[in-house]
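User: Round two. Same drill as before: sequence, then structure, for each protein.

Assistant: Same drill it is. First protein:
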Amino acid sequence: MNAHARPATPPMIAVIIPCYRVTRHVLGVLAAIDDAVTAIYCVDDACPDGSGRMVQDSTRDPRVRVLFHAQNRGVGGAIKTGYRAAIAEGMDILVKVDGDGQMDPTLLMDFVAPIAEGHADYTKGNRFWNLSHIRRMPLLRRIGNLALSFMSKASSGYWQVFDPTNGYTAIHARVASHLPLDAISDRYFFETDMLFRLNTVRAVVQDVAMDARYADETSNLRISRVLGEFAFKHVRNTLKRVGYNYFLRDLTIASLELIAGLGLLAFGGVFGAYHWIASASAEVATPVGTLMIVMVSLISGLQFLLAFVGFDIANAPRQVLHRSIQLNRTAPPA
């Protein structure tokens, strides 16, 4: 054994619980949290039911700290408050668990282990791994998750992960401290916006299999209401990510494939539309040569674009980030 090697010490684990209308379940969640957890941050997000005060009055667990928001900031805002408090107190791994009972607290160490063992920087739940259990999920939520998962893959660059709206997550404090938390969405887009931000710093993300769990809790998220908003934000993040990764940070063969693909598709579409309109107006057949130019442009453009997507799928981060950076205790700029 190396004489200078230090014995490994267990990580200091913090649990962040956003508290908004969770008075029926949050005490049960707190009671089930593993003894290996060092601190628990319950963030009362201006809860009209007084979740924070109830936790203060009802629990004697010395690990519990209750943080209060004067105004409601949304689930993302509550998580970010918990992150900042945990980082300031020197925690190593930050786990987010909902207070409504949908997330089984006994699975907590399954999310911690890949990070503690150096295999990932961020872990998130995936409720779609067991097909027999997916049927427990409401149909509308299932369909919405499928649509949002595909959009999230494109906007985040993590094509290997699924179930992007799953809020059962864990992150290494060093990685969280280097994210522009102020720029990340405060509300229900938080989880998918986090994936986009994690890709910009090249953090390794790993799914953790879990079962869908629905009982008598009331979810504040309505996918039918946020689908349009999420679609717009995913398109925005996709454009930003591609710009960051393939034109600002680096210029690879994929960058050229994207330019060629989009250029050929645009040329084929405009050239073909112009000549189709001109031929229709003159009531003559479009020349075969013109049709060939259009078809070759469109097919070649599609092939270049598919080649770019294939490169992007294979370009997921693989080198764990938290081992090579130090904790940043100052809040990064937005």
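Second protein:
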Amino acid sequence: MIRIWLMPLAFVACGAAVAAKQAADGSVTGAVVLGLAFLALAVVFSPLSFPRHVPAAVAQAAGRPIVYWRPGCQYCLRLRLRLLGRARHASWVNIWRDPDGAAAVRQVAGGNETVPTVILPDGAHVNPDPAWLRTQLAHAPA
């Protein structure tokens, strides 16, 4: 659980240090701007920017598209940000929290835990193009 938050905590710590240095040098405006920028990066790279984790067994039973992801994955983040509101049309399984999800990814990705891996009715797609997936999720029930 703690490794999920390591990167966001690192951004907060670095942001606080940089902001404190700026404030000590007399640039309060610079401190605020840099502090907010690092805080924004922490939020973007945290699990908060993803839909709530659904266990793999529940996601498979729901019959919706499934996106297997993990925190800190830049490709997962890119996919999530490009899907915007359509992300809610899929079940999101964090493979670091769900061993069954990690096993499902290894099964379709040649033994590797390559994410994002998306399961649609037509099969598995490893690291799909976000624009293509948006059109696929547009037809999925919410």
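The helical segments are 6-24, 28-44, 56-62, 74-83, 99-108, 130-138.

User: Perfect.
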